[in-house]
């Protein structure tokens, strides 16, 4: 492991994974999942009012601790959130993943990992998915 990776882990280790930091971590992992940061994804992140600058900085430190590997964030996020928080987190993750009007590829796979690790009932998942799909339909031309 390189010196910089070790240094990053030392600084990240003191960051408590509170529910807010976990939500920020989940959002960052979804934005990074396909390797492309899109303006629409950042817009969704900016609309999450519980994620202030300090919380996002802590989430960034945690994301770096995981080496920037989105899938490595799933289990710790799931452990840090209660069921109600998991539902809200999934709605935001769906929104980020579908910000471009489609759900596919690495974002879809990561979303499936979150769903597998969370304790959200199927009916709630279907409702969340339907609403976010409706919200992000590309029916208004640019």
Count of discrete alpha- or pi-helical segments spanning 4 or more residues? 8
Q: State the oligomer.
A: single chain
Alpha-carbon distance between the termini?
46 Å
Write the H/E string, N to C: HHHHHHHH
Form type? globular
Number of strands: 0
Indicate the low-confidence ranges by residue numbers. none
Averaging pLDDT over every residue, what do you get? 87
Largest sheet: none
Using only C-alpha atoms, the radius of gyration works out to 15 Å
Q: What's this entry about, in short?
A:
The protein is mainly α.
Show the helix and strand layout.
Layout: H1 3-13, H2 19-32, H3 39-47, H4 53-65, H5 74-80, H6 83-97, H7 105-117, H8 122-135
Please describe what this structure looks like.
- It is built from eight helices and no strands.
- The chain has helices spanning 3-13, 19-32, 39-47, 53-65, 74-80, 83-97, 105-117, 122-135.
- It is globular and about 40 Å long.
- It starts with a helix and ends in a 7-residue tail after the last helix.
């Amino acid at each position: 492991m390189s010196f910089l990776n070790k240094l990053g882990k030392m600084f990240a280790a003191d960051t408590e994974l509170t529910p807010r930091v976990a939500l920020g971590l989940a959002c960052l992992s979804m934005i990074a999942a396909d390797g492309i940061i899109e303006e629409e994804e950042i817009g969704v992140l900016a609309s999450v009012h519980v994620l202030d600058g300090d919380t996002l900085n802590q989430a960034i430190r945690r994301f770096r601790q995981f080496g920037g590997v989105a899938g490595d964030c799933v289990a710790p996020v799931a452990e840090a959130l209660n069921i109600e928080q998991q539902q809200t987190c999934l709605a935001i993750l769906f929104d980020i993943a579908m910000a471009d009007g489609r759900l596919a590829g690495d974002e879809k796979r990561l979303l499936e990992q979150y769903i597998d690790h969370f304790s959200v009932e199927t009916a709630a998942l279907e409702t969340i998915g339907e609403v976010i799909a409706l919200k992000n339909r590309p029916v208004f031309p640019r």
